[in-house]
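hey so i finally got around to running the thing on that chain from the lab meeting. sorry it took forever, my laptop kept dying and i had to restart like 3 times. anyway pasting the input first so we r on the same page abt which one it is
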Amino acid sequence: MLTIFGFPTSPYVRKVLLVIAEKGLETDLVPATPHKPTDAFLAASPFRMMPAMADGDFTLPDSTAIFMYLDAKHPEPPLLPASPEGRGRAMWFDEFADTILSNWSRTIGFNRTIGPALLGLKGDEQAAARAQTAATPALDWLETQVPETGWLVGEGFSLADISVASAMRTMMYGLDPDFLRARPRISAWFARVEERAAWRQVKDREEKLWKEAVASGEHRQA
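ok and heres what got predicted. didnt touch it at all, straight out
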């Protein structure tokens, strides 16, 4: 059984879960967070990177590394474009999501919703507001890259859409709705992503685990 360690409010965990769902695979999602790591999580991710994967005896951390492994082992449907140009663009969007957009995404979502509700931490509204302002140029650029129809890389739905949408979803835990309304291409593209069966599956699981974790308080700081 394929096992993923992490919590789906993370853009990186969500990215891997979406890849798994798009490929029609089954997985056991074991809730884990870096601040309260389990032995199994640390065995798969010694530096507490989230998510981590165990596939039989093979373990691997990092969402992009896990994607490359899964896409090679389960090539259908392909989630990287076939052309060199398309593949390069898809990997660039993945990097944009992971190292640019997700930095602000986590700060906004964590301080306004995830930290207070899930972990019992006081949110830093000033940090969230600064992150929202800092994210503006990146979202403005993204608005120029999103096509009126279809997907970020013209050859079809790919890792590019999965990675960017995953970061946007975490940002939406605290993002001012006017930010998206002011960017109609992003809004329309994100709505197309939300219509996919894999997205609905992952979102339903995320919401279920969120409600259970908040109700139990098991992830709250001692």
